[in-house]
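Exercise 7. Predict the joint structure of the components listed below.
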Amino acid sequence: DQQVKQNSPSLSVQEGRISILNCDYTNSMFDYFLWYKKYPAEGPTFLISISSIKDKNEDGRFTVFLNKSAKHLSLHIVPSQPGDSAVYFCAASDGWVQGAQKLVFGQGTRLTINP
Amino acid sequence: NAGVTQTPKFQVLKTGQSMTLQCAQDMNHEYMSWYRQDPGMGLRLIHYSVGAGITDQGEVPNGYNVSRSTTEDFPLRLLSAAPSQTSVYFCASSYYPPDETTFYGYTFGSGTRLTVV
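Solution:
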């Protein structure tokens, strides 16, 4: 039972255009959402997050949108750059429980930025 | 550099062998966890720890043991390796905020690629 789903295994975007990565979740108890970026042979690195009390969070070229009613979030990258080519993981959490904040990850989307 | 250090980076085991994947962090993080990454399945939680002496199971704990004797170290033990444990393993740690209203995300290690033949 996949609680966090990224239905697009791959996405190809031209340099300078907008990249939109999507993520759906099923657990209505999730209240914190994160995006991680992963390069080959490296661990995932934190990119941007959003709590359920917001519907948008921006950090430079990266914006995350949250639609709680649809249980959907998206990551927008504008403008896309070649260094953005990586695998992007969506993750969700239902908060701190007895000192633990367990993240549930999606399957990942491989983003390729073409020159 | 500060962060999460995993060793070894690569390992090949024969079915039935045992081994320990090492994980150490120098950020004084209370929370540590182990994930495995498999194609098409994302990262799945194996075991986690909220502090020294405290561990608990995640989503896919079978075949793995953990212990946490210090804040810094969180080793993952494979008791009797099976081909189904072929995967990339990531250790991650996180700071526990006093008020639980924030979450700074995990810091991940660079991973251990394990092949069981």
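Discussion. Chain A touches chain B through 29 residues (CB under 8 Å).
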